[in-house]
Amino acid sequence: MSALKLGIMISGRGSNMEALIEACANGNIPAKPTLILSNRPEAEGLVTARQLGLGICAISHKSFGKDREAFERALDAALIKADIDIIALAGFMRILTPWFTARWEGRMINIHPSLLPKYPGLNTHERVLEADDAEHGCTVHWVNSGVDQGEIIAQTAIKVRPSDTPETLRARILVEEHKLYPEALKLACQTLLERSA
Questions:
Q1: Range(s) of the domain holding residue 180
Q2: Which of 22, 51, 56, 142 has the fewest other C-beta atoms within 10 Å?
């Protein structure tokens, strides 16, 4: 099976990025991490990626002021130059414009810490506790122009404990994310490969 060139976009330490890279290295996913792209030049994940010998690129959104599309055109140019086939957003903390999502529609996935369609956006752990939900989880979905509204690829759920705080939920969900994201990326890659066959 041919390997797709994978671009991973991050803003922070990149723990989901590491889970994806490890799964690709184990041969579990028909993808080759080719470019790690961040909107924060100081992102810890870039250091990790460099140590692993991967291509990295930092494009600060701050350099573009309020021109979000100009920032995204720079991202797009870096992805095209690296010949990327599929993008995995792994803690990329920028809302993408319809221009960018249209450019990469059907080739970009995201992981979100809630059981979508519940709780799109931020502060999901706090919102789950405020609603007194019995379960919480994470979702991997295709990215479209709506925030956390794309077609769901995979989900996993955990029980909310009476003792849970936003911090304990965040930590427990992150463990699940590291298991779910590689599985979902594999499904997404298979979809792309079948489409191009």
A1: 4-196
A2: 51
